[in-house]
User: What shape does this take?
Amino acid sequence: MNKIPIYNITRLQQQFSVTDFQKDYFLILPDQFKAPSEEPFRTETYGISLLKEGSLILHSGMEQTRIVAPAVLTMGPQVIRRLENTREEPTLELIFFTENFLTSGQTNVFFLDKYPFFSRGSHVLPLTSEGFQKFNTIYNLIEEVLRGQHPHEGDIVKSYIRILINEIDFLYRNQAGAGEKEPVSSNPLLNNFNVLLNKEFLTHRSISFYADKLAVTPKYLSEYVKQQTGQTAGEWIDKAVILEAKVLLQRKDLSISQISTNLSFVDQSVFGKFFKSKTGLSPKAFRASVN
Assistant: This one.
């Protein structure tokens, strides 16, 4: 294993043996769902899954959650995830879609960024019997449109996905607390920094690099990010690297030297000093604590 793989929409379609690669969305039915790989991965897409029966274990970042049906699982781009099977075989439906598909033609291109359940917090929302019936009806409607080759298929699917998101937002607000602030990633500069960071942090850890790409000064970027989030741009960069390192250190098939190389450190010693300065543990000690 090298770096954690990132699946785009085409690679996901190949993973699930979908033959129509012309669309920026696709639906996986229960009989099409394959047992998940237990390798950590990221996606460039968004996904919403309805777990109808059985259970799964979700590792998101360093958090582990057991998902028991009925429940809704949301997946946003760039978040490190790993799915683990349980004895109870999962039965689920899953729709993947790209950001461009949902926001094309819309004035608010940051529509998806305001929903924390796609990037942080609880990605799993348990459903009541009534809630399950509501979500199941929406998935049935999506399936019906896709099977019927409707001339306005894309527009209709887009509308149903927006309905799903609004229903999930309602559940999330009730379960997480209605007073929770919306994430500041809906701010264009901060959102662009976050997107760029997710793509480049493995090879670029200089604030100057990101400031240059975003056409601002390093001082302005760092102060602005801190004003909006409470953390400087440098702290965001370090946090992304540390999370990646922690995920990789859980893999027994990778040596610490290989991990330091994957993370673009000059050598294992430099990586070790960086990791310990941020976590208080050496890479070896952290690995022993989680394995």
DSSP finds eleven helices and ten strands in the chain. The radius of gyration is 20 Å.
